[in-house]
Amino acid sequence: MLKVGLTGGLASGKTFVAAVLEQLGCRVVSSDRLGHEAIRRDGESFARVIEEFGNGILGADGEIDRSRLGKIVFSDEAKLKKLSSLVHPYVLKKQESIFAQITAQDSGSIVVCEAAIMIETGSYSRYDRIVVAVCPPELQVRRYCAREGVSMTDALARLALQIPIEEKRKYADYVIDTAGTKQETKRQVRAVHQELLQQVVP
Fold this sequence. Notes:
The protein is of the alpha/beta class. It has 10 helices and 5 strands, in the order βαβααααβαβαααβα.
C-alpha cells in the first residue's frame, strides 16, 4: 500500500483533487470528515470540546454548531491549536484503523488522506508521498468567500492562521496547480496518479 498525504491551503482545490484521485481508483480518507465525526454528540471529542469552549457553541439540536465554533477558533490561533489538540488524536487513531482495514482488503492500494493542516500538525511525516494543491492567495480568498458566503476580512483572517501555500510547496513530492480550468487540473492529477502507480509496493 502507498500512503499519500494530500494537503494545500484554504480553498486551494485539494478536495477537487481528492475527488479526481478517487475516480482514478485511489482510496480517499477525509480528515475533515473524521474531525466532524469526533465532535458530534456521540463522538469521542464532544465532551472535551464543550468543556473547553462552552455550551454557547451548541445548536438547537444539541450538536456542536461548527459555524459558531469556527468563529471562535479562526479568530484566535491559540484556541485553534487547542481545538486541534482535542480532535486530532481521534482523527489519527481513526485514520490508522482505516489504513489497516484497507491494507487487509487490498495491499496494492493507493490510499490518499486529505487533510488541511497536515503540515501544521506534523502528520505529513506519516505518508510515503505528499501532494500539495496550490493556487495564488488572492484566488484562495475569492473561492472561500464564494463558497462560504463570508467577507474578505473573514477569509483573510482564516488564511493568516495557515502556513503560506508557498511554504507548503517545500514539503511536496508533487504540486498540483489548481488556478486553471478543472480540465487542466485533472490532467495534472492524472499525471501524478500514473507516477504513484509505479511506486505501489503490495
